[in-house]
């Protein structure tokens, strides 16, 4: 089966049926017309991206659905749950997501190089590291209330956020495992089964939230507990599929002692991956935390939290596109196809531009009704409608940089991207947000404008990096990275 189809047979069947060879692929790319190559690559990426978009949307919707349920309990519960979710993202979810993203490089390039056994080894190694890390993160979550109060946040909001995060701790461990399993399947282009299983989890989550929040009357605590239960359901479904599906027969051959080796090698890529993603995620979440220090903090926090949740929901579309180009680039580099890897980046950039224009226009058109999904408060609804044009612009820029960042993960450029994100968000973005919000008194609008400045800088920097890349050199790096040694693959 061709690699543009989202649910392939086992790797060995794919190779045998098509005589997959590096030389033949490069000859095929160079011998076809440019437009045909472009369209063919677009089909490959969309075949991966559309199910991945669904997977990301469905998994992210677990938190969003919980916030929606809590929002109908009142303004204070909404503010508390929103603050808790922001804090949880900063101190837990983004860290685990970033660490797990190292598998996009490792598993993707190993699959392209036909080192199928290493996919299972890399994934098990990542799970062990993320589980150990989750213990430390759980301690931070347990002290959410104290930390927020020390940061000058509102007393009532901090108390509610602290209670919410304590009830969500069981889900932290499931979330870490889930990130590893997603990358394991994504690298092999097994995306349709992920979409189906994530959809099943979301349906269960709606029922669980309704029961815990309204029937058992646990309130916001029930919504937090529902998050954890649903993450574990998703993990269980993925694990059963990997264990019993023939599509993973070569990539997962059972528990391996190799997973306990090469931890330092994994951390050399995982830590920059975490820094790269956390620097970006933290800046967005910092906007919500800063909103708690504005006049009328309940209104500002509620609106900025709704804005952020909206941004993350749209962002999941871009994450799907970024995951697709990451898979394509890493697979082609591992297979030694430099020209196809470069083409994949150019096609992904074109797709991201089109997607950004569509999403931005749609966001503006629904600005007067969007706030009603989160709150019954008229003041909140009006404020959401006012800030949405800024969200539309940020969605466009964020989508573009997300796709280029996906290509960077496929290449293993996490160290470079971490530096770019540091400059874009913490030299330009956050300082601009603070000045606009607190010096020029632009409130939440000023906070979000600073984020737009950061996204602009990040996008320009990533464009320059991709245009200056020597793709033949990237192939050499990929081949060296996936060569097994006594302690695992070298970076």
Which helices and strands occur, and which strands form pairs?
Blueprint: H1 11-18, H2 22-30, H3 34-71, H4 75-100, H5 102-112, H6 116-142, H7 144-150, H8 155-187, H9 192-215, H10 220-244, H11 263-291, H12 297-335, H13 338-365, H14 367-370, H15 378-411, H16 414-439, H17 443-467, H18 471-481
Helix pairs in contact: 3-4, 3-9, 3-10, 3-12, 3-13, 4-6, 4-8, 4-11, 4-12, 5-6, 5-8, 5-12, 6-8, 7-8, 8-10, 9-10, 11-12, 11-16, 11-17, 12-13, 12-15, 12-18, 13-15, 13-18, 15-17, 16-17
How is this structure best described in words?
This protein is mostly helical and 491 residues long. The chain has one domain. Helix content is 82%, strand content 0%. It has helices at 11-18, 22-30, 34-71, 75-100, 102-112, 116-142, 144-150, 155-187, 192-215, 220-244, 263-291, 297-335, 338-365, 367-370, 378-411, 414-439, 443-467, 471-481. It is globular, with a radius of gyration of 22 Å.
């Amino acid at each position: 089966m061709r690699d543009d189809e989202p649910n392939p047979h086992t790797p060995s069947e794919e190779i045998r049926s098509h005589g997959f060879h590096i030389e033949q692929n490069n000859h095929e790319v160079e011998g076809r017309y440019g437009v045909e190559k472009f369209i063919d690559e677009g089909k490959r990426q969309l075949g991966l991206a559309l199910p991945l978009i669904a997977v990301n949307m469905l998994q992210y919707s677990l938190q969003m659905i919980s916030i929606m349920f809590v929002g109908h309990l009142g303004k204070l519960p909404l503010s508390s749950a929103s603050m808790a979710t922001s804090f949880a993202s900063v101190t837990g979810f983004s860290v685990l997501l970033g660490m797990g993203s190292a598998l996009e490089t490792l598993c993707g390039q190993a699959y392209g190089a036909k080192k199928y056994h290493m996919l299972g080894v890399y994934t098990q190694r990542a799970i062990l590291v993320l589980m150990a890390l989750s213990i430390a993160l759980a301690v931070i979550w347990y002290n959410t209330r104290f930390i927020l109060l020390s940061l000058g946040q509102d007393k009532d909001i901090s108390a509610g956020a602290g209670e919410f995060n304590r009830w969500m701790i069981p889900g932290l461990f499931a979330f870490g495992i889930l990130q590893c399993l997603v990358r394991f399947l994504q690298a092999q282009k097994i995306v349709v089964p992920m979409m189906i299983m994530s959809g099943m989890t979301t349906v269960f989550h709606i029922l669980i939230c309704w029961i815990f929040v309204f029937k058992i009357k646990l309130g916001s605590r029930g919504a937090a507990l529902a998050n954890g239960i649903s993450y574990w359901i998703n993990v269980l479904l993925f694990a059963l599929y990997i264990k019993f599906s023939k599509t993973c027969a070569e990539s997962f051959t059972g528990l391996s002692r190799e997973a306990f080796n090469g931890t330092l090698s994994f951390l050399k890529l995982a830590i920059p991956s975490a820094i790269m993603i956390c620097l970006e995620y933290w800046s967005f979440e910092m906007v919500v935390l800063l909103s708690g220090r504005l006049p009328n903090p309940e209104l500002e926090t509620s609106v900025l939290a709704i804005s952020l949740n909206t941004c993350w929901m749209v962002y999941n579309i871009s994450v799907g596109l970024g995951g697709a180009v990451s898979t394509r680039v890493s697979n082609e580099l591992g297979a030694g196809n430099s020209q196809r890897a470069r083409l994949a980046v150019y096609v992904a950039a074109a797709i991201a531009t089109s997607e950004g224009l569509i999403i931005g226009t749609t966001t503006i058109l629904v600005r007067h009704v969007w706030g009603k999904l989160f709150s019954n408060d008229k003041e909140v609804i009006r404020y959401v409608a006012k800030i949405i044009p800024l969200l539309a612009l940020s969605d466009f820029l964020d989508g573009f940089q997300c796709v280029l960042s996906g290509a960077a993960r496929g290449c293993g450029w996490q160290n470079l991207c971490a530096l770019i994100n540091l400059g874009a968000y913490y030299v330009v973005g956050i300082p601009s947000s603070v000045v606009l919000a607190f010096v020029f008194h632009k409130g939440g609008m000023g906070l979000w404008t600073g984020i737009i400045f950061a996204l602009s800088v990040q996008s320009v920097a990533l464009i320059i990096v991709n245009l200056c890349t020597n793709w033949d050199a990237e192939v050499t790096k990929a081949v060296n990275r996936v060569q097994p040694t006594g302690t695992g693959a070298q970076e």
